[in-house]
Amino acid sequence: MAGSTGEAALAAALESYRRGMLGADAALLDAVCLDEVAYGHTSGLLQTKAEFIASVTDGNTRWTSLAFENVCHRFVGDNAVTHFVFVGQNVSGGQTNSLRFDTVLVWCRTPFGWRMLVRQGYNKA
After folding, report:
1. Which of 42, 51, 89, 92 has a CB 3.0–4.6 Å from the CB of 61, allowing a cystine?
2. Domain segments of the chain as ranges
3. pLDDT 10s per residue in the chain (125 long)?
């Protein structure tokens, strides 16, 4: 499903993920992630869907800006892999943090649209 329709739908799912993070929107994040999502951080922390959504919405960290740069999608049947550079700024514990790292997402096409199965952030060596 690499045609323009598939690409547009996947781009919309990616934007929903970005807006959900930026707005700490539990409903939006719940809708874009499969229940089985594995959410990996650059630190090595791996979270379940519930843990990931709670960490975004608990108020301890607030995103003030978030962009995905150099986005590239690759389609494999009913799955897709997205790579991008995660660039954002947040406030956590009263401290402003700037982040920039590479990210890979694995998506599954469902009857309800594209849903995230895996997210892994990493720093290039």
Report:
1. 92
2. 4-122
3. 455 668 999 999 999 999 999 999 999 999 999 999 999 999 999 999 999 999 999 999 999 999 999 999 999 999 999 999 999 999 999 999 999 999 999 999 999 999 999 999 999 86
